Amino acid sequence: MVVSNGASTVKSTSANVLVSPYVEPPSISIHPNNKRVNVGDPSSMIVSAKGANPLTYQWNLNGLPVAGATQSFYLIDAVGDVHLGTYTVTITNEAGSITSNPATLSLIVPLQVVSQSSDLTIVPNDSFTLSVTLNSEQIQESYWSKDGKPIQGAAGIQYEVLNASISDAGSYIFHATDGTDWVQSNPILVTVNQPPFFKSLPENRSVVDGQRIMLQWIAQGTGPLNYELISDGAVMESNKSGNFWITPSSDRGMTEYTVRVSNAFGTVTSDSVKVTLQVSNPEISKQPRNIKLVQGEPLTIGISASGGALQYQWYKGATPISGATASGYSVTNTVASDAGDYFVVVSNDKGIVTSKPIKVGFGVRVAAEVDGANLVLRFNRGDRQAQWKLQKSSDLLIWQDVRNLTEEDLETLNQPLGITSEFFRVIER
User: Residue 424 in contact with residue 418, Cβ under 8 Å?
Assistant: First the structure.
């Protein structure tokens, strides 16, 4: 080398320089991966490396060299306990060496729920936590469900509810998968001991006479809930739904209904619901018929009427019957004086209507059977002491006296039959 300036020049001594070719050290482009296999299955560990040849490989298991594992891959014919652990591979050439990231070889163990929360019984506003324990942390996906429906955002092995309400009662299940199979916990039943309370009541209604309506009471609380429909202090009907079909009484302008709901933890009664009848002119839709009884039998007379807020007064002859102010009139044990003509007056604010007259009389009830050539008649005259006679007819128009009946006849009468069809009856004489 020569160095100079304006004043002088200087020359260095000679030097020898040796240039060697570049040798690329080893590097890893693909590291070995973790693997999970079943016992007895084949497996392998593979690495991809580059660098100046020759590259040498040495596989290590848990930090110790694996005999004969000196290639870019390590093959295992049948995995056993001796093959499980953490693998690395060291790659070397004349420029240096590099060791791979660790890769684990482990066995596939079926995912299982090891333990879980027990069933819970709480009261409203309590808090509760449900949890499970699994035999593996290798979980790819998990969630909780309630009554068969996934709970949004509930993916951990614990599920917590603060200030529980009746809507939190139900059956909870935890679901999880490790990528191979799904497993789930047994159902965990959460019971919220909630006395019943009403969510909604029907509104007051106005109906026409005879109209059938449905009223619905909705309550919540721990099931089962029992609903009882009450009017005038008496239970009219009960069910589990709270839906009741009602036909208000035509005798009243307004009827009040309440519902009592009960479960194992309490009872609640609703406010009253008023059903008002729209009043119209009274009409009798079903007239009574004449009645023939055996004295001593009960008497029952009834009519069907409409119009709303109806009032009734029964008469015998022209005389009102004391206390007979319902749609029907009855006598438990009739006597002779109960025979006669009856009618009922039906009224409301819109008008008044009178039924047709009903004749009530007493007679003999006859049971007949044929015994050979005789007609055997048996009589039931009840308490009536009267004289009776037997008549016959061939056309039900003209009746002919057969005989006056004696006391003995009124027990059992054998009447010879003719060769033509005949009708018989017993009347007073």
Answer: no
